[in-house]
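pipeline: protein-struct stage 2 | run 1193 | GID complex subunit containing RING finger motif
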Amino acid sequence: MNKINHDQLLSLEHPFIKIPVEKFRSSLKTEQKHIEKEIAHLTNTVSEISKKSQHGIMDANQVQTALEAIVSRLSTLKRRLTETRAEESLYSQRTKVRLQHLQEFTAIPTLDSDEFGRWSRVRLNRILIDYMLREGFRETASYLAKSENMEDLVDIELFVQSAKIEQALNKYSCSECLQWCNENKSSLKKIKSTLEFSLREQEFIELARERRSQDAIAYAKKHLTPWQETHMKELSQVMALLAFPPDTKCQPYKRLYDKSRWRNIISQFRSNNFALQFFTPEPLLNVTLQAGLSALKTPMCYLPEHRNINCPVCDPHTLGLLATDLPLSHHFNSSIVCRISGQIMNEDNLPMALPNGYVYSYNALAQMASLNGGKITCPRTGAVFDIAQVKKVFIS
Ligand SMILES: [Zn+2]
């Protein structure tokens, strides 16, 4: 019963390993690009210098200056390589620490062992830090990671740049996010992102809002026409904004002027950024909670009159909300739960029927009677009975 199903839990841990591995890979790629570019430049310049000096086009002084320029470029390359090397060693260290963390887990046989308690505490902290980072509580997340000495198990720095971009978008500025799009052009293309179009469209809308029609037209010519083939419908709508003032009641122009579009851009940026960094679209906290909730969810959970005080899914404002789209759990055996105490009714805590037909557990009724001089009040109807009137119920 307490045996751990390692594969089930490990299936949720792909991004945990993939993130540092992919960072390591992209850092190697950048390094390789730098080296190739500089080698090509070096070979070309050296052969040019040798040709020119042979034909007397360059004198000794000019050759020296040209060689000095090469040396300075090579030193720049060296500095860059030192930086990427530092990044590589960080991510290789992270991959190692994370693999060790998972390896520790595979060696734990049972759920009730102390080792599992310790390991799952670290995992819980990881999940909480991931949640805090996604919700923008970066300082709290850093504090927890530092105090638990688990900085290699979380990806705080990956949220630093994205936080800056989100802050800029919150202040209605697209330039930082556009720059990010430019830096990640090929990866965004791979995931078929339309974020850049949304940003360009928004910049146009802001010009239209300020009634700067000439600027807006010039902007559209430069930045919107490249999207003609794929986004013709959106383009014709947004261009028509020039004919409508920002306080228009006419749809779809009223909607285009709506400032809430900025919130959509932020969430579009977030999901693109998560995809590029190999984060799951949903926080791991939601995923793990949902896995547990789906095991508890029954058709009764959403019926207010049948709520069980001990069932997390029955709380409509918190976990019940998270479980809305989950399937119902498959029950082989039914349990009868007391509405008063939330305890299961069985041979140790018999179900007892009141004269009005409602059934509650023996323990709950006995406790109520002992506090009220032998009297019982039915929580559903408010009717009062004597404890002697209740009858045992047998389920066959
Ligand atoms: Zn429930």
